[in-house]
Amino acid sequence: MYDVQNIRSDFPILSREVNGKPLVYLDNGASAQKPQVVIDAVTRGYAEEYANVHRGLHYLSNLATEKYEAVRGKVARFLGVPSEDSIILNSGTTEGINMVAYGWAMPRFEAGDEIVLSIMEHHANIVPWHFLRERQGVVIKWVDVDTNGDLDPQKVIDAIGPKTKLVAVTHMSNVLGTVVDVKAITEGAHAKGVPVLVDGSQSAVHMPVNISDIGCDFYAITGHKLYGPSGSGAIYVSPERMAEMRPFLGGGDMIKDVRRDGVDYNDAPMKFEAGTPGIVQTIGMGVALDYMMDIGLDNIAAHEASLRDYTKSKFDGLNWVQVQGQSAGKGAIFSFTLEGAAHAHDISTVLDKKGVAVRAGSHCAMPLMDHMGVPATCRASFGMYNTTEEVDVLVEALELCHELFS
C-alpha cells in the first residue's frame, strides 16, 4: 500500500510554510527534495565518517571508501545493469555527457560526421555536441516532435545516414513529460551500426529503468533529481564503448603509475574518475537510491501516474490553460501558459504567493521552445511525495492568476 502521507513525513522541508502558506513543491523536474535518511547520511558523512577515499589505510578512509564504492553497485541495480564496472560515478548528467563528448566522440568524429538529436533535448545534451560542431565541423541533425509532443522512433532511425556517428536522445522530456521509446531507437540505430546515448535525468526518477533491456551504449543520471544531493550522479557505459573511451580528466585515482616519460592509466571505470570525488554527495545518492528501491520504483511510477491523470482532468476543465505536450502515457510533468499576456514569470510569482513552487522559463530547452512557438512556460513537475490536494491548491492559484491577468 502506497502511503503518501507516510512518505511526506520523511521529507522535513514539506512541513514548512512559504509566504504564510503550506509549501506545495512542484519543481521536482529541476531538483527534488531530500528525505531525512539522505540528510542524516550527509550529516554523518561530514560529522563522523569523513576522509578521502582510495588513498588511505586508516579506519576512516577505509570506511569512506567502502561506502563510496558501494554506490556503484547500487546504481547498477537501480538501472538494471549486470556489472557495476560499467558505472562511472560523477557529478551528474552534465559531466557524464561531456565525458562522452570529450572522451569518446571527440577523438573519433571528423568534419561532416553527424549527431542525431531530438528537438526536446535539454541543453546538457545539446551544448557538448555544439562544441564538436564548432571545433571539429560535426553536423547536428534535429528530429522534431509531433503536435502532441511525441517523438516517432522511426523518424529518429530514418534520420541516421552514412555519416551518422551517434544518436543522443532524452528518455523523458523535462518540458513535455514525453516518454521516448529509447529501446526502439537503440535497436534501429544499432542495426545501422550507430551507438546511442540516453539522457536519463528525468526518466530514472519517474519510472523503472532497465538498461539491459534498452540496450543503449550510454545512459546518464543525476543524483539531485533522484532525491539525493547535488553534485552526484553516474553514467552507464557499455563495455565496448568503455574500451574505446579515452580519459576526459587527468589526476589522481585514474592512474596506476606516473613517470617522467609516461603514464599508465587505471582500469575502467576508475580510469574515468580523476581527483577527489564528491564523496559524501555520492554516498548520499546511494542512500536515496536505496530509499526509492525500498518504496518500489513501480509503486512510485503508479502514484505519479495517478497524479498525472488527476492533474490532466483538472486542467481539461480550465479552457484558458494551454498545456504544452499531450502525449499519452507522459510523465507527471505539465508545462503550460495562460491565455492573455501574462508571462510565465508573472504566473510563477503569483503561485509563489500561494506557497506553490513551479518553474518558469525555457527549462534549458530553448530549441523546443522555438519549435513550440512560446518564449517561456510555467512547469509543474511532480514527485513521489505530491498529492491530489496539492493539485487542487495549484488549480486554485491558477484561477487567481486568470482573474488577475485576463
TrEMBL record:
What this protein needs as a cofactor is: pyridoxal 5'-phosphate
Q: Which CDD domains match?
A: SufS_like
Instruction: Tell me the Pfam families matching this sequence.
Output: Aminotran_5
Give every Aminotransferase class V domain span: 24-394
User: Which EC class heads this enzyme's classification?
Assistant: transferase
Q: EC number(s) in its UniProt entry?
A: 2.8.1.7
What is the superkingdom listed in this entry's lineage?
Bacteria
The molecular function terms of the Gene Ontology recorded here are: cysteine desulfurase activity; pyridoxal phosphate binding
What keywords is this UniProt entry annotated with?
Answer: Pyridoxal phosphate, Transferase
Give the UniProt record's GO annotations in the biological process aspect.
cysteine metabolic process
Catalytic reactions of this protein: (sulfur carrier)-H + L-cysteine = (sulfur carrier)-SH + L-alanine
The job of this chain, per UniProt, is described as:
Catalyzes the removal of elemental sulfur and selenium atoms from L-cysteine, L-cystine, L-selenocysteine, and L-selenocystine to produce L-alanine.
Question: What family is it from?
Answer: Belongs to the class-V pyridoxal-phosphate-dependent aminotransferase family. Csd subfamily.
Q: What is this protein called?
A: Cysteine desulfurase
Q: Which organism is it from?
A: Cognatiyoonia koreensis
